[in-house]
Amino acid sequence: MTHPLPSPDDLAEVAEVTAAIRHSIGSVLSGLDSAITSTLATVLAGGHLLMEDVPGVGKTTLARAFAASVDCSVGRIQFTPDLMPTDVTGVSVFRSDDHRFEFRPGPIFAQVVIADEINRASPKTQSALLEAMQERAVTVDGVTRRLPEPFLVVATQNPIDMEGTYPLPEAQRDRFMSRVSVGYPQPRDEMAMLDSHDGTDPLDEVRAVTDTATLTRLIDVARRIYAAPAVKQHIVDLVAQTRTETALRLGASPRASLQLLAAAKARAAMAGRNHVLPDDVKALAVAVLAHRLVPSTEARLAGRGTQEIVRAIVERTAVPTEARDAASPSMATVANGS
């Protein structure tokens, strides 16, 4: 089966819609261009996003601003130590009037799910998201129910050294396509925030600038971006090095390779290109790979984080000449999965 490459009109629509979403989020939060770009790339790649940073820097606000910018169903889950898996997935309730069980869906049955402070819940409750994030389905009482499309989990978490947090299991982290850090704002951006929040909540003014039908179409456009064999080989080389790196106890999975390619295609689409460049891979390698890795004891004692280790791997991994010189493919068709 073959898929046609995106047309110039397709790419123009990607640029127009993502610019509108970027402007909508920017009306609420200033100075988060990098975080917004990573968010949009993850959305177009059909992945899930993990935002990690200290409390109060705008993680949840960014997630809510994105959700408000898209005309879609939104489910918000405040993760707490006493949250149960059924509070996420839903529960079957017995109806005494007709003597049958009725399933009441949980907040996971939404197109955009905001999982706020996900690492404050127990690992048992965190695991309730595993099937949903991978299979786009939830099984309760032996019945599997499909989730709506598109389906996106935007989770926020505090650093694991904060009080009352549980580290996410490796299997859970691996299901997030990318992790971004919001960071503290620059003084001028914080000043703009004080002005915009003075007596009002700018989130109340956010209006949808696109809908799920358009978003689904743009996700399909991103999937049809061409990636040359040499670019794919570069991704394989990067991921393979995380598995042999002595500073890491756990390397990246094959899922990481697939998701790095998908994110790179989305970034290329946002840049108006119908093909992936090595720069797309390099720009997203830390966001896509670092949160999946586990540093060795020696690296942890030396204060080396996984982000630093991934940056070093990216810098020392040679880019194949064919990938560096990759040109736009013909506008005919490319093989499925290219």
Topology readout:
Elements: E1 2-4, H1 8-26, H2 33-44, E2 49-52, H3 59-69, E3 70-71, E4 74-78, H4 85-89, E5 90-95, E6 100-105, E7 112-116, H5 123-126, H6 130-135, E8 137-140, E9 143-146, E10 152-157, H7 170-174, E11 178-180, H8 187-196, E12 210-211, H9 212-223, H10 229-244, E13 248-250, H11 254-270, H12 278-289, E14 294-295, H13 297-301, H14 306-316, H15 321-324, E15 333-335
Helix pairs in contact: 1-2, 2-11, 9-11, 10-11, 11-12, 12-14
Summarize the structure.
With 338 residues, this protein is of the alpha/beta class. 44% of the residues lie in helices and 17% in strands.
Account of the protein in words:
This protein is α/β, with parallel strands linked by helices. The chain has a domain at 225-338: Magnesium chelatase subunit I, C-Terminal domain (Helicase, Ruva Protein, domain 3), CATH 1.10.8. It is built from 15 helices and 15 strands. The strands form six sheets. Strands 4-7-10-2-11 form a five-stranded parallel beta sheet. It has a two-stranded antiparallel ribbon with strand order 1-15. Strands 3-12 form a two-stranded parallel ribbon. Strand 5 (90-95) and strand 6 (100-105) form a beta hairpin. Helix 1 crosses helix 2 (33-44), helix 9 (212-223) crosses helix 11 (254-270) and helix 10 (229-244) packs across helix 11 (254-270). The radius of gyration is 21 Å and the shape is globular. It starts with a strand and ends with a strand. Residues 331-338 have low confidence and may be disordered.
